[in-house]
Amino acid sequence: MSEHEPQHLYDGPARLESEAGVWESDVALRGVFQPIDGHFHWYGRIGTTLAGVRNGQTVTVRTDHGAAEGRLSDLDPWGRFRVAGTGRPPF
Asked: Any residues with CB less than 8 A from the CB of 38 and at least 6 apart, and which?
């Protein structure tokens, strides 16, 4: 059996957790290894609004492939946050 290797994109269901609550949502996530700092950087958009959270807050993003902490930013006009993290992604 082999361990799941990080991919460069994931579009699908996720569970988002923070001290403000828990949400089920579709996410569109992307990632790339940056040789300058030696880390994998992942980012994307959450497909639903997250009531009670704010820009800059940390959330845990869980998929069938794993979990990782990300920071919320860039709220779009539809109330959906961008999320980004560094290191092993949740996909």
From this structure: none
